[in-house]
């Protein structure tokens, strides 16, 4: 039987980075806010199916100007004060690939505290399965959860499910790349007990066997050779950030059948409680799967675990420093890189990012390159159609990418926002930027009795509130 769970100003569906941020921003703007999440843990790919290799990256542009703050900076600062984050790292040899490490597990704990502080109501273990619509107007959602099914009514719904699931159910126009080129998905795992001195020594002695993010060189114009020279001087593995290569071992193990050759060999560095863990998020990758469909996601879950076992045996057998290492965590579910993008009133384009375009309805910024795509060919990244924002700057993200085309009273935030394939806004910092803006916008619409589309006519209050909540909209390249 279908009961009425409640009636809210703003209902946020999905409690990943975008959803948590949207719910907090909405509540801070004065709206009665409900956050619905499928599992018991908030944080999504940040810490539940994560952690990511780097959280957060690119809060700074190539000129080392901070371009993203808001909820990302606030949580980084709070965790830094408590010893669960490291100061922003802006080292130039990583081609301005800046890292602002936060401990994902602590981020996942902190956000419950913030939700409590701000009066965000939580509805956990609840799967949004249907959208309540009157014509093109969204009125709420239906959830399945322990105890049955409920209707939840809302003045504005925000879809933060990552895959645009709610918009899709509401009939929104969505784009998905052909399955042959969809980015692969991954089950990540983390290991401790690594002898980092040995790892660094091996890198120094076999420098040509490694790849150091040279694809991002347009940011700094450093040559591969210069980066290698710099890496030769580094003793602290954290400064390298990501270890990718072991090309000699990989070649041998691929030949003997000890490496699956679905991805490159490597790992990210994850600082934690004064230690450094190795985080493997490229050791399994399954392609030709559409993870918005049950058959696709099931295949990924099974195949990635097979690849991970193979990868771990490889590391233990071949890689100096891993002799006594052990796995501390395998992610409970696959992480999905790419499925739907929901089409909005504006579609963010490759040229907008390449040209570092500015928009009147700016709600935040991004300095992440366009077009970097994972491919299942052993290289990890496909570089076609790639560009960094010009002059080492950043592009604006316009409000209209959140406003779902053809529907009223619904916004999308997080990795499914309206963009062409090259401009997919899937990185954590981008999901926080769009989440914060969607939360404030939804709350304003609920307060004023207008639709998100009507808000497009005048976004000045939205922008003022975002700035008062710490977001950066102006004053940088
Ligand atoms: C292997 C991998 C590595 C990555 N590494 C990095 C990295 O190092 N740095 C980086 O910045 N980014 C990285 N990313 C990208 C980034 O982690 C994600 O794109 C980002 O976390 C997505 O945030 P989101 O809020 O849009 O969605 P998610 O974090 O996916 O959150 C969606 C939430 O919605 C919930 N949900 C889904 N459907 C429903 C429903 N019907 N009802 C209720 N709840 C629902 C889910 O349970 C989840 O909690 C990586 C991605 C992958 C796949």
From TrEMBL:
Coiled coil: none annotated. Keywords: 4Fe-4S, Iron, Iron-sulfur, Metal-binding, Oxidoreductase. InterPro entries: FAD/NAD-bd_sf, HdrA-like. GO terms for molecular function: 4 iron, 4 sulfur cluster binding; metal ion binding; oxidoreductase activity. The keyword Acetylation does not apply. This is FAD-dependent oxidoreductase 2 FAD binding domain-containing protein. It comes from [Clostridium] citroniae WAL-19142.
